[in-house]
Amino acid sequence: MKIREISGQKMEKSSKIYVAGHTGMVGSAIVRKLKAERYNNLVLRTHKELDLLNQAAVNKFFQQEKPEYVFIAAAKVGGILANNTYRAQFIYENLQIQNNLIHFAHVYGVKKLLFIGSSCIYPKMAPQPIKEEYLLTGPLEYTNEPYALAKIVGIKLCENYYKQYRSNFISVMPTNLYGPNDNFDLKTAHSLPAMIRKFHEAKIYNKRDVTIWGTGKVYREFMYVDDLADAVVYLMNVLSPDYLYDEGITHINIGLGKDVTIYELALLIKEVIGFKGDIKFDKSKPDGTPRKLLDVSRLNKIGWRYNIELRDGIKQTYDWFRENFYNKYE
User: Fold this and answer.
1) Residue 318 catalytic?
2) ω before 129 within 30° of 0 (cis)?
3) At what angle do helices 25-36 and 225-238 cross, to 10 degrees?
4) Distance between CA atoms of residues 274 and 287, nearest Å
5) Are 255 and 307 in contact (CB under 8 A)?
């Protein structure tokens, strides 16, 4: 593959870059990466400063600030329980956020936009590993269907703004993410951060066991969020819409290309934290999709591979969790 086939609009160090959702886990990692690479003209707004659900407010922001590059990391997110409980909110709010951002990026002539989705966009029973072409080839996992549908619409918005207006918009689909600034609320957290909190509390309160949802037999792929940030900054600089859409795909998968069972993950987290008790599984609770391993061969061919192994990432995340929540839980 020749670099000209994938080359895209490249950011300058002084380019005006807007990271939507910069206070969240993904957005904050992107900001860390951009600052580490000495990009010095970042535009950041908290939810209180800019309500992304408000069309008029987003319009005014783009009109006044005129960012040149946009990373969309803003979203309403959560685990199985949150997705299945707040179904209407998950589809409405995610559609509203991305519709506003993508449309006004087009209206005000953003040079390039990168939309971040989720691997839950793929069919529940998709062949493994999951190729980009498998989008819309089968039914979705019911528990996170509203979130997945919203993300699919975001991908299609980017694709069709390019096809109709030649807007320089691309999409990426990361695997399951974890790391600093993750959500550790047991009512809304994903599996890995929820386990970190459960095992931590079980350790300090001398509990005999920790209960994990489901059978423990399903497989998941986990990427440390700083690896994702490295990947999206790289792709913003080298990946063009021409490469995506001429290939007949709408996005690029971002992942490790390997996975573990939830049971194996639980054992690893237990070991890292130093909990000595037992692990129990509540089989009355849902497992979700049996497996979601992404095919990352296109990403590797473009020239990017992950750096942080699961054990190291869990250790770094646990260190962050203890440093930021020590007084609350100890």
Assistant:
1) no
2) yes
3) 60
4) 26
5) no
Write out pLDDT tens, residues 46-105.
999 999 999 999 999 999 999 999 999 998 876 667 677 879 999 999 999 999 999 999
Helix (H, G, I), strand (E, B) or coil at 89: helix
Superfamily of domain 3-182+222-257+293-308: NAD(P)-binding Rossmann-like Domain (3.40.50.720)
Please check whether residue 252 is in contact with residue 304, taking contact to mean a CB–CB distance below 8 angstroms: no
Residue 291: the pLDDT is: 86
| CA–CA distance, 171 with 160 (Å, rounded to integer) | 12
DSSP3 helix / strand / coil % (the chain, rounded to 5): 45, 15, 40
The enclosing H or E element of 153 equals helix 145-165
Active-site hit among 69, 122, 147, 318: 147
With a cut of 80, say whether residue 329 has pLDDT above it. Answer: no
User: Domain limits of the chain?
Assistant: 3-182+222-257+293-308
The stretch 19-38 carries a mean pLDDT of 97
